[in-house]
User: Fold this.
Amino acid sequence: MDNNIIIKTDSLFKQYGEGETKVMALDNVSLEVGRGEFVAVTGESGSGKTTLLNVIGSLDKPTSGKVFFNGDEITRKSDNELSTYRRRSIGFIFQSYNLIPVLNVEENIVLPLNLDSTEPDMAYLEELLELTGLKSKRRNYPSELSGGQQQRVAFARALIHKPELILADEPTGNLDSKNSREMIEILKSSIKKYAQTLILITHDLSIAAQADRIFRMQDGVLTESEGTLR
Ligand SMILES: Nc1ncnc2c1ncn2[C@@H]1O[C@H](COP(=O)(O)OP(=O)(O)OP(=O)(O)O)[C@@H](O)[C@H]1O
Ligand SMILES: [Mg+2]
Assistant:
């Protein structure tokens, strides 16, 4: 397999329900994403975008088909191996922030490292707090933050372990346009600096236009948009 391919999916199908209620959330999705690429996925609500991201991130299993990460088939790994894959190799950013209410900002950010019994890189923690503008909020709890600030914590948490792959599901959906631009800049500079790969779902075409490639999902079918600017 091509060493420059970090994610490859091979004929992914994901079916929900049976008969009348049957939905093909993924309908024969084959995709290759190169290391260091920024790929945007757009498409109508219910078209299967989140399903695809969750299957790539091993949070969900396809009905059939395979997912490879660095040439290694993850769709045949055990739950234990998968939780290690997620902890070490992936930074997830969800539309809902999923912060832990009883942990303060700093504790939320370093949580993935604690779960992996890894010492946080304190210099990098400081850098992320600076980048996300959260320095003065480091001891605050999520309930004491605005929605935008909570999303910034979620960004920092997704980046703290310098994951090879960042999976972002409408990460700026709840942010105003200024905050949204800032967060996308943080992601773009992170992937450049650490040679990371970014797969980002967005409804915002001005964000999608910044990607190396744009894909469109429609009724579970993924197609690459032509004429993407590079
Ligand atoms: N757990 C589930 N059980 C049944 N159907 C589901 C389940 N999860 C998703 N679906 C269906 O699969 C389809 C794809 O859903 P998905 O969440 O991937 O869409 P999406 O493109 O992310 O939409 P949105 O832009 O609204 O987030 C939808 O028709 C949805 O109703
Ligand atoms: Mg979704």
Remarks:
- The CA atoms of residues 212 and 230 lie 5 Å apart.
- DSSP finds seven helices and ten strands in the chain.
